[in-house]
């Protein structure tokens, strides 16, 4: 006899910028009836708060002192994820190039990471039916006991092309500048002392360079279903 309801599953999806983490995670969560958490949005939200409140983002001490002040709330419906800071919708302002250029410095501050990591763990713990959590350190640090860990990669060229396609029309950008900014952010995120961007030893690596988004989604859905079925 087959068992009935699938058990709650926690999926960690990590990787550098433009590998498809957000698009894949949202789609997988929606298909499988799981919640969805964009942890990058939380680091962007705290960075936006620092900028709008005049905190010098080049001063780790000032960032550490202010880290506990903003109230960040993430909505985890994959069809309509939300992020608010002190009750204000931050989904637009957190995507500006100014925030993108400063987020690595803010997210490298240990006090910021401790607070945001606690928030992420409590969100994951309260997601009764399971959740897909995407970021940089989910499999290594935030949820080391996740049922399934995926590490997405893609060539810098493919990632820059995807990002600049997204930015076109919003803010002036060109491919070379996008690629340079992306490589710089990867280096900062991989090189920081506290929970750097890294593949967990037990993560499944998926190179998305030559795959369509649908193929990546299908691949991850299959891996989750295999986990749920207890076949792996
Ligand atoms: N496999 C893929 N092939 C082509 N475009 C993709 C693929 N995966 C994602 N994209 C596109 O690339 C952009 C960045 O994807 P996103 O999911 O935001 O990446 P990340 O969260 O890793 O930064 C989006 O516009 C998305 O639609
Ligand atoms: N788990 C995470 C997620 C994001 N971040 C930081 O937040 C930044 C923005 O993350 P993001 O996922 O929104 O970035 P994109 O890849 O979508 O551009 C990253 O460059 C990291 O500095 C982190 O440190 N740890």
From TrEMBL:
It is found in: Cytoplasm. ATP binds at residues 15-23. Its EC number is 2.7.4.25. GO terms for biological process: nucleobase-containing small molecule interconversion; pyrimidine nucleotide metabolic process. It holds the Pfam family Cytidylate_kin. Keywords: ATP-binding, Cytoplasm, Kinase, Nucleotide-binding, Transferase. It catalyses: dCMP + ATP = dCDP + ADP; CMP + ATP = CDP + ADP. One of its GO terms (molecular function) is dCMP kinase activity. GO terms for cellular component: cytosol. Its main location: cytoplasm. It comes from the Bacteria. InterPro entries: Cytidylate_kin (IPR003136), Cytidylate_kinase_dom (IPR011994), P-loop_NTPase (IPR027417). Residues 11-225 form the Cytidylate kinase domain. Belongs to the cytidylate kinase family. Type 1 subfamily. NCBIfam families: cmk. This is Cytidylate kinase.
């Amino acid at each position: 006899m087959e068992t009935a309801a699938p058990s709650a599953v926690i999926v960690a999806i990590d990787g550098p910028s433009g590998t498809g983490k957000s698009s894949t995670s949202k789609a997988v969560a929606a298909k499988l009836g799981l919640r969805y958490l964009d942890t990058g949005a939380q680091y962007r939200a705290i960075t936006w708060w620092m900028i709008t409140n005049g905190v010098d983002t080049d001063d780790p001490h000032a960032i550490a002192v202010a880290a506990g002040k903003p109230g960040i709330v993430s909505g985890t419906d994959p069809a309509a994820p939300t992020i608010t800071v002190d009750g204000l919708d931050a989904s637009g302002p957190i995507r500006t190039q100014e925030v993108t250029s400063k987020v690595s410095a803010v997210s490298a501050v240990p006090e910021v990471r401790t607070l945001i990591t606690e928030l992420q763990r409590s969100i994951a713990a309260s997601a009764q039916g399971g959740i897909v959590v995407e970021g940089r350190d989910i499999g290594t640090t935030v949820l080391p006991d996740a049922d399934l860990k995926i590490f997405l990669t893609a060539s810098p060229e493919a990632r820059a092309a995807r990002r600049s396609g997204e930015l076109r029309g919003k803010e002036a950008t060109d491919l070379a500048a996008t690629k340079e900014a992306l490589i710089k952010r990867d280096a900062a995120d991989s090189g920081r002392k506290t929970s750097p961007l890294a593949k967990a030893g037990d993560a499944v690596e998926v190179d998305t360079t030559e795959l369509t988004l649908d193929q990546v989604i299908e691949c991850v859905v299959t891996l989750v279903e295999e986990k749920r079925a207890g076949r792996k």
